[in-house]
Fold this sequence. Notes:
This protein has helices spanning 2-11, 21-45, 54-58, 65-77, 81-98, 128-138, 150-160, 255-271, 290-297, 303-306, and strands at residues 111-121, 142-146, 196-200, 208-212, 216-219, 230-235, 238-245, 277-282, 300-302, 328-333, 336-344, 353-361. With 364 residues, the chain is an alpha+beta fold. A hairpin with a 7-residue loop joins strand 3 and strand 4 (208-212).
Amino acid sequence: MRGATAEADEWTDDAPVSRHGGTRAGAWFAALLLAGVSTVVGCRIADTDGITPVPQLLAFLPWLLAPTTVALLFAALTRWRLGLVWSVAVLAALAWYIEPYGKSSQPKGAPVAELRVLTSNVEFGQATDELIDAVKDQRPDLVFVQECEYGCEEKLEQAFGRDKDTGNKGNNGDKEGGENGEDAGSGAVGKGSYPYRQAVEGAGSDGSVILSRHPLKPAAGIPATMGMPGATADVKGHEIRLQLAHPMPPLPTHLSTWREELSGLRDYAAANRARPTVLAGDFNASQDHAAFRRILDAGFGDAARLTGDARTPTWPARTAPPLGAQIDHVLVSRDFSANRARFLDLGNTDHRALVVDLTLFEST
């Protein structure tokens, strides 16, 4: 009877303590794990990104299941009842928030155009050759390229721009070479396939470019540390707003800049929610970041969410899949549906490229 009473006492402890040193250490280890994970989960519940290291850890929210499960096992081994309850509660919260965020309803009206969009961060231009091969293989209508420095821009112009001997340079909305981009065609991709472009030139990570088969008009981009150009595409007589996204990453010393630039993208989304718009690039944020969810809440859908691929990692490429976070996105206004998504391993970059097939519907 005495032994049974002692055992019951261990199960009713309300703190990670015990007469035995090993049991006490195990309970404290579980408590530390749970405290760390609970801080991150608490910020997710409170709909805030918090301070370092919470924003960095939020990108990997699903993977916090691992330390929480370890804490649960230690709580069970050390017979720490409060730890068991705590662990189960955290696991339940994680399971709830791992569900894809945002609406997935289909637009009404008749389909009027099909678009294939490719977005890729080529890491200081290092993966430009691999991107060129991917473009030739995937044949997208629109290409959003981040960290496309001077050498990257030159290679893309040589591979896909107009032949300069004809006098058509394909710069920033030049419409020579065929109405609505028919000269690009749907056959082999090569010189002249993407005669239209809008770019912010820069070295290192500052440069970005939008390539298009369809005529482009320049549009004001979003001011940011790294280039975020904008444009308006004419697709079969339908105007589609285009905006490249590449805010600062949530580095400990640049959290305010990260928030401000994501806020700028949210304001852009809110201003263009009622017109056909594609907002694509490296957002340096996942659906578990409050600043990114604000963009979705402004009236946009994540194409990967619409195709059932919301949790497919895009970064870091060396571990994705199976380990990583989806921070590269193609966001669309409610005029679009997304039919298919592919994630490409290009090599020489820390990001996977994302290709999505979109359908534009007539506004009702």
